[in-house]
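Changelog entry: the Zinc finger SWIM domain-containing protein record was regenerated in this release. Current contents:
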Amino acid sequence: MTRSVQALAYARPSALESAGSGRLLGLETAGGLTPRGAEAHPRFFTGFLTSPQIAARGLLAVADVAAARYHQRIRPGSLDPVVTGNGDRLRFESFSGCGGVYARLDVLSAGLDGAETGHGTTNVDVNNPLREALSRLTGDDPLHLRVGPEELAVTTLDGPVVEKKVPLPDRWLRGFAEAQVASAGFDLRAELSGAEAVRFLRSLPRSQSRGPLWVVPSGRTLRPTTRPVAGAVCLAGPDRLIALERVLRHATALRVYGPVPDGRPAPSAWEIVLPGMRLTLTLSPDPARGFSGEGGVLEALATAEAAEDAELISVLLAWEPRIDPADLAAQSGLDVARVRAALTRLGTAGRVGYDVADAAYFHRELPYDADRAERHNPRLLSARALLAEGAVALDGGPGGGPASVRSGERLYRVRESADGRLSCTCAWWAEYAGRRGPCKHALAVRMARREARADGTAGPSAGTPAGISAETSTGTSVGGTR
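Regenerated structure tokens:
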């Protein structure tokens, strides 16, 4: 696993302090992007929280996920949450150290009372003393929130005095992107009242289950089941919802989102509705399976057209809380399908997220080199290597039909269905059948066809050299097939 070190530099530690008749929650920011460009310590908001205790607990829940590893609970992660100002709201996001849980607290305009919220994205310091202070916060005494340095300090800061250095694995970056792609395919599957949400969530098992749990709407609540019956939503690792307990007694509703069920384990999103806020946890299909390997972004990464479209769309973004693909299509001259592909690609660079409650993308710029998620994606790298080696033969020509790919000592057959989906005879495809994106062979074929159509040629030609066996069944060798 490729890792880098993320250096987060803060002017001072975040703190909860007494201030006159109330308290001041000062959240310090590290380097980030705003409409004015890169800033060392951007300032997004100063004003009051309408529900201070709930907001404090919601922020703690996001910090809980950032510090958690729900699978193989060793070496806890500790990447500070990301905050985005979208003009009408503040979004606090984090990702678990194991790569299987994405958390976001949306403090909406109804939860904020102050000046207009700024625009931009940065990391925010959530240190242990602050966590302890927030956990002790009770009552609803006025709580003033400041996101970014004090106004007078903006021009007087002469250098950081607090620095955190944390490992940033590539799988964490890819997981952030894949979680957005998965969420874009979700629909609302169930909604419970606050009281029913408390009863249901507190009835769930506290330990990891051996197999996936499913829940199905039953009257006013949800009924757990071990079988993927019609209308069921997958709840893989119910113990991973523990962060919701921070705010559970303040919940006004629980909304559950998921893809169209097909009987297989799938990701899901669990949203607690709060006064002026929403707290959402998105779970991977299995506690031992992070989002990084889902492969939902690979098709968008494999096309040069999407790269060019993404560059065009990126200049039209302005930290909108809701991105309308139809509006972007009208502004860019692209059709809506190409805009959506471009947004998927921008998601791999951390430049857009997806809000299941709004069923819309939103603009943010994650404060790290998220382009590494594309450059170091193992399947994408392997597909490009196969293409460079001339290992792809477009037997049916660049327009479609069968293709062959040499990989190691085997020859794999790639076929295209009537709806344009590619299948392969490799072990990866036999195990996942496209549920975790294309294998490297199908990806290489897709890239070869696009190159061939652009060049007006039939593409690379590859026969079956002596000593290479044609793999026409699912095969048994997993090594080198992904």
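Confidence is low (pLDDT under 50) at residues 152-157, 458-482.
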